[in-house]
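Example record

One chain of 367 residues, shown exactly as stored in the release files.
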Amino acid sequence: MNAFSRIAIIGVGLIGGSIGLALKRKKPEIHRIGIDASFVIDEALGLSAIDEGIPSEQMEKAISSVDLVFLCTPIHEILRLLPKVAHSIKPGALVTDVGSTKRRIVELADEVFPEDRYFIGGHPMAGSEGRGIKWADALLFENAVYVLTPSRPLPPALMKTFGETIEVLGAKILLLTPTLHDRIAAAVSHLPQILAVTLMNLVAQHQTSSPYFLKLAAGGFRDMTRIASSPYELWKPIIETNQEEILAFVDEFIDALKQTKQKILDQALEKEFMNAAQFRLSIPRDTKGFLRPHYDILVPAEDKPGIIAKIATALANAQINIKDIEILKVREGDAGTLRLSFETPEQQNQAQHILKEIGFSSRRMNG
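Predicted structure tokens for this chain:
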């Protein structure tokens, strides 16, 4: 089929607005219809995130003539809207969502969508410290993983066109089953959130015995509890719709803590530390490598202003693009380690030579 010509975005917040801006940047010929509260629509139009704004109460009529619908509302709202959307779109149209959990959403879609109307679950692994349309960014999805969770088969031409649209956003597609997506999300996103909240509250309880517990909380504690400040209203529907998988990993973690407790008593933790360090270094390579493998180097660097800029400028002058960058570890005022990712082994090799010339040592993580 031809490319989508009319797209509706239901919920023009951070994700929906960013989709609109990315499409305007790369595919300005697509007509983008935003559906939300009037004040949100006004702001989205002002930012050129959409071409046309429709109030939420006119949603069914607005989506009746579009080729593709992005459902970018909170999870409970996605579940509420799906039956209405399924029966309002035209035959042959496609609906996708951006919810953080997938099994419940896909199961409902399978129930309510007629055979000649299509749905595919989606979850862009991208976000921001802010919420709402004012935080929308045309580059939000650049190099981000965009998980798709198909259930019922889509016509090949429709799937191809949709995949090309997601790639236009700058994202890289990963196909998972809804159940596997939710299990992975429980392990690497939902469990860490629960642990951060629990650890923060545990230590805070000891403030009654001494005010220095939190005053002495340094970098490691701050890093582990950074996400503890996430708003509950954001997490409530995630926890409710993925409760089974989250509880399973909580139980696994409790068992793992009991084993760790015994290893502390046995003074047998060295292997655990070594394994954890090795696994930790593998995270960026594995998460970025499902479509186009990245080639990483580790660069020890002093913790002082201008270091990252010096490295980035030297590589940019040589026309080498850093695909991803991460600060793996740093001790304030001392030194840390940067992970730099490149698209080809040739760029990886060239970057090492350039960094050596300006006084930085490095080593490869892969390749």
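Notes: The longest helix spans residues 178-205.
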